[in-house]
Fold:
Amino acid sequence: MKTTPDVIAFSRRTGLVLLVASFFSAAGFLWPFFYVGQNLPQTQLFFWCAVAFSFVVVVLQVSSQQLDAKSVALLGVLSALIAALRPLGAGAVGIEPMWFVLILSARVFGPSFGFLLGMISMFVSALLTGGIGPWLGYQVFAAAWIGLLAGSLPKRTRGHMEILMLMCFSIFASGFFGILMDLQFWPWALGSNTQLSYLPNGDLSENLSRFLTFHFATAIAWDLPRAIFTCTLIALTGGAVLSALRRTHTRAAFMAPVVFNEHVK
Structure:
């Protein structure tokens, strides 16, 4: 079955930069299980480094002519749409309509596009809603990773099996986002005197057990509604949205060379 090429080519150089950025951001999420010291670190340093590396991705794509004007325009339109959808779920536990657009867009346009789309849309959403704070770096990379993974799903799967695959992925992505968001505030959330508190210099197994208990105690209120809502949106609208996005991909002819025909009188 013929598949459409990615809007942004996933080159070896791009993959290396994304790997380095993901390494720094992963360190910002996972430090509680490996950190040695009494004072909690300033984890935003990891995310500023990761943001810098991710910005390099855009520069590399533009300089190598792998990101043309139409790709930038599409990235801007979809980022604005996702940023506008996110506040619709504000105040409702896990009801966030932005995720199904991110997942379906990354599915059609590829992993590099999905990574940038998740990152930019989450940042723009924070600007619109005043949600700028220490948590923003975590949210940006959680969304970027979800876009990257959605764009990396098998391309040849189509029809009902594709919708089923995306529904299963949306359930995974909802839980994945919940875990990452819990990681970003768990060390500070409960103080130091509870059975679920983070233990500085504690054993890996002990802190992991405490975190998992803390996460699943709160996951039902957020992750489960998010998974059900996103999965339902994909089931009801996934086919139509995918068709529209693929038509956009085909008609826009991303990265097609511009040819000027000489007119002879």
Observations:
- The chain has one domain: 12-252.
